[in-house]
Structure formats: C-alpha cells, structure tokens
Fold this protein.
Amino acid sequence: MKIIQVVNSLSKLDGGPTFTVTNLSKELAAAGCDVSLLSLLPTDAEKKNSHYLIPPSEAVSTYLVSRPCCRLDFFLTSIRRAVNQLTDKNQVLVHVNGLWLPSVHAAISEAKKAGAPIMISPHGMLEPWTLKQKFWKKKAAWWVYQRRDLLASKVIHATSEEEVENLRCLGFRQPIAMIPNGIPINEFNTDVENKARFKGVRKDLKVRTVLFLSRIHPKKGLLELVEAWSHLKKDGWRIVIAGPDPIGHRAEVEALIERKGLIGDFEFTGAVDGEEKLALYSSADLFVLPTYSENFGVVIAEALASGLPVITTTGAPWSDLVTYDCGWWVEPTIKGLVDAFSDALTCSTERLNCMGERGRKYITRFDWPNVTQEMLETYRWMLNQGSMPDCVRLY
C-alpha cells in the first residue's frame, strides 16, 4: 500500500497537525506501508531557529518542494508535479491535511486527475469558531474551490464525534472516519525524576503549578485565563505558559497580566519540545487549555497521559473529562474558568492524584498503535482491500 501524506508546512510553530502528520507517517511506515510525506520547503527563519520537523524515520520518504510565489498561486506547479510523480502507481492513496491553502488545493486537484482516492483531514479548520475567523475570505474560497475539493474526497477524517456532527451540518454526505489523533503513551509514563533533566522544572513542593502548553494565540483563550485568575484566591499556585508565539500575542497577554497585578503569578518558558516538554508535564499539578475551538487537542491527551487533571472548555471535544472524573469541561468564559479553578485549586493532593490516575488509564485508547490500526483499516477499505471499519460513519 502506497500512502502520500500532504501537509502545507512542517513548522513546529503551526501546532498539532505538524506533529500528528509526521508521527502518523512514521507509524504507517513501521506497519509496512510505503509512505511519502509531501510538504513545502522551510522558510529561512524556520531553518535558522530549528523550527522545522522531519519524521525521525528513514522509512518515510520526505519531499520538500518550493513555496508558492504568492498567496494566490493556485497553479503551484511544484506540488502538482510531485503529486503527479508519486501517483504513477496503482493502489496509491492521497491523504491531504488541512484546508484553504494553495498547496492543499493543488494536491487535491492533481490527485483527482490521477484518479487516486483522497482522504481529507480538516484538522479543525471547519469548526464553527474557526469558520468565523476571516469570514469573508473563507466564504469566497468556499464557493470558488474549497467546497468542491472536499466533495472530491472519498472519506473525510474527523478526530471527534463533535467534528463529525459539524461536518454533517455543513452538508457533507460522504463517509467520515472518526479516528482520534494518537500520542506516544509510553513517553509520558517515564519516571518523574528521569523526565526532569534540565534546570528549573523540578516539581516545587511549596508552589503548585498550573501548566498551559500550546500556541500563544487568541484562539487559545489566554486573555480569559488571566481575567479568571485575577478573580481567584490562589495562594501557593502559579501558572506556567509554554509554547511558541507565532503572531506576537504574548505581548498582549503580558500587558494584561501587568494591568491585573499578577506578574508574580505567571511564568513564560517559550516553545518547548522533547525532554523539556516531558519535564514540564512532570513538574505540573494541573493542566489548563481555555480554548475557543479544537477539533481534538493533542496537549489535553498528553496531559492526561502524564497523570494531570485537565481544565478545558466546551470548545474542545473532551466531555469525557467529566464522564471519567479526570478534569473539568466548562464554557469558554471567564465565569466557566473561575468555577473550574475554584474547585480545582481547593482539591487535596490526594484527589488530584486520583483524577490524574483515572485520566492516565482512560487515555490509553489513544496510543499510536491503536490509532494507526484504525487508519490502516480505513485506507484498505478506500482501496477496496477490506471491509468497512467500525470507525467509519455513513450518512
């Protein structure tokens, strides 16, 4: 089976999809697939700051092609040529990740010409909150090409039942594969002391830590987090904010922290990865993602795998936090966050630890081998090599 994974960028600054696509490619290759990963060349800034991610597996053939000369370059010949060359064999499937961009449109157009079955993973780009951002540009793109591109897919990939429902509300009637994103569970089960290998992240027994780990972006609700924190009695607690700042939103967050007189309550670490990220999870007592919109939320799964209770919002598809009593799932408002924190910050260490253990047991279903198997079964079905898997939802 030959799989072509297409993603616009492999920059770590682009968040979850970069990591899920590269990890899925690696896992598929380990399962015996012929995997090609197609993306655009890194920018000079990404090269200079080591913000680029290449799958750590020689089994994945990675092709980096030239970038479009402008935002309206829908004839991106570099992508089209690469897809054309890679689809010159039988039993080739093209899995496109993301929407709206010229590179994605070019890949879908060329895959259609080649007659290859197409799976599209929107990665949350069709969620209601996200569709409201840059509304008129998206509305125009929707009728010019994006709706037609989506209709060309044999299967749309969703990562939650909520995303399935939102796709149906947009009028898509083709099969939808509900397959969550995966995480490497074993990486987060390492002994706490072995994880905390660099200065400044060992668990502080005097000051307990709430960890936020994601892009610093208005979508993530950091301003609401600061506002909520200003209303709380939080003796002995602090918030650590970790993640890249791709559009300069950190300055706005820091300005609000200063106006609220909370400078001593917040610490920014910048972008983290690898051992540094694992160590931050280990040093924390509670995790928060006050997001407005997520189709999945990989960091929530990582936090649960690390044994952390989680506070997040109904903008993320994690109602199971309440079902399995391993966190709080509240409205994405200041009041919702205040109510969740009022409960969480008064919890005993024993209760938080028990919630963390329940979360660790629950999240094992998202281990990469399980996710990869569901994706493989869906690919086989799309290529007429197997029966329809249970993860596929028909209209």
